From TrEMBL:
PANTHER family: PQQA PEPTIDE CYCLASE, RADICAL SAM DOMAIN PROTEIN. The lineage of its organism: Bacteria, Bacillati, Bacillota, Clostridia, Lachnospirales. This is Radical SAM protein. It comes from Catonella massiliensis. Gene3D superfamilies: Aldolase class I. Pfam families: Radical_SAM. Keywords: Iron, Iron-sulfur, Metal-binding, S-adenosyl-L-methionine.
Length: 410
């Protein structure tokens, strides 16, 4: 019996919090209870001899805690560390110029060739990757998009597409429905006005038409995502109603001040951010976003380099799409001799990109040092990094730390 790999243990005010950073599960124990459990796990003697020193009620209590720790995978955790899904930006080019686009930082990279992408698909399929998400830029701008799709479809169990939907039409809707298991469409608003304020004229109508075409072609797994900005922040209810009307799954995402998002953060982000800091708590139900509230079930986790990686349009490995920045750039997948051994032996740990990524994780980041609630304040380390990089973190932290300390240790 042993603690999970990289377990986080923090103590404050007579309590100890244990957290598995790989699945987000956590538990709070009294210091007295934790000491018993810790001694039990670390004892060199037989566990049965250790537990028998206590009276019956204490044994039952400690064994109950141990069962909970196992259920939450805080002890005896089997981290397979298998790469199961990969996001691939097959292009950095796009037919839109959305105000908030973070991926615009990759526009310099252009497009890999058809044969290069086929080689990437071959490499990933040979090591057992099950799911591929094709993204961009806008994937449909590529002239070889249909060829690449057919090539990937033959090699992976699940094929996903992220698109702005403006190039979906009567000629390709059936092809997309036949070849993709699910399609995610970006809208970034809740009606024509808010969508087009960010994405451009006539985009909303094109999305509406694309969804109807996909539905008619038999595609029933469509999600619609919206990045929350100052323009659309008051429309969460309308966003859910719109998705209900379309029969799509709503996904809300946080704003990332990167690329054109950084250029336009005064307009798209700052006003909303200041309102939130001044007490306007935004709680987006039915989504992964939990702005300003303590996540009920999970702490900060990140599956980058464990079960998921992002391959940029430069064919280099990045932790995720939110961190496709030069400082997190890893090796070019086509220049790795044996990708299976590379992943199994964690060869990526030798890259500066990986080490820069690890340095922003909350248990290592200097801006989280000494904090007793660092693992609860945000479920995505990328946003904490970006807030710090662009000067928002101090205000963000100040507004939440006291509240979280009361919720966790009060």
């Amino acid at each position: 019996m042993k603690y999970c790999e990289d377990i986080r243990i923090v103590s404050e005010n007579g309590y100890v919090v244990l957290n598995n950073p790989h699945n987000g599960c956590w538990i709070k124990l009294t210091e007295e209870c934790f000491n018993y459990v810790n001694n039990y796990i670390n004892t060199e003697s037989e566990h049965e001899d250790f537990i028998n020193q206590f009276d019956l009620d204490s044994r039952i209590y400690i064994e109950d805690i141990l069962n909970k720790l196992k259920k939450l995978e805080l002890i005896d955790y089997n981290n397979k560390n298998e790469l199961v899904s990969v996001d691939i930006a097959i292009t950095a080019l796009c037919n839109l110029k959305c105000l908030h686009c973070a991926n615009s930082v990759m526009e310099f990279a252009g497009e890999p060739s058809t044969e290069e992408l086929k080689s990437v698909f071959q490499i990933l399929s040979k090591i057992g990757v099950k799911t591929i998400c094709i993204t961009g830029g806008e994937p449909l701008v590529r002239k070889d998009f249909f060829e690449l799709t057919e090539f990937a479809r033959e090699r992976f169990d699940k094929l996903c597409l992220m698109s702005n939907a403006t190039l979906i039409n009567e000629d390709n809707a059936i092809f997309l429905a036949d070849n993709y298991d699910d399609i995610s469409i970006s809208i970034d608003g809740y009606d024509k006005k808010t969508c087009e304020a960010i994405r451009g004229v006539n985009v909303f109508d094109k999305i509406d038409k694309a969804i109807r075409l996909l539905k008619n072609a038999g595609m029933d797994k469509i999600s619609v995502s919206s990045v929350i900005t100052s323009i659309n922040r008051n429309g969460e209810s309308a966003f859910y109603e719109l998705n209900e009307k379309w029969g799509t799954v709503p996904i809300l995402r946080r704003f990332a001040p990167v690329g054109r998002g950084r250029d336009n953060d005064e307009k798209l982000f700052k006003e909303m951010f200041i309102e939130d800091l001044n007490g306007r708590s935004i709680n987006y139900k039915k989504t992964e976003v939990n702005w300003g509230f303590l996540p009920q079930y999970r702490t900060t986790i990140c599956d980058a380099f464990m079960s998921n990686i992002y391959i940029g349009s430069d064919l280099c490995i990045y932790p995720c799409g939110a961190l496709n920045l030069q400082e997190f750039k890893g090796d070019n997948i086509l220049k790795i001799d044996n990708f299976y051994n590379y992943m199994r032996n964690k060869g990526y740990r030798e890259t500066s990109g990986y080490n820069n990524y690890k340095s922003i994780m909350p248990d290592r980041a200097p801006y989280c040092s000494g904090c007793k609630v660092y693992m609860f304040c945000n479920t995505c380390p990328a946003y904490m990094y970006l807030y710090n990089k662009y000067g928002y973190l101090e205000a963000y932290c100040k507004s939440r730390k006291t509240i979280l300390e009361k919720k966790i240790y009060g």
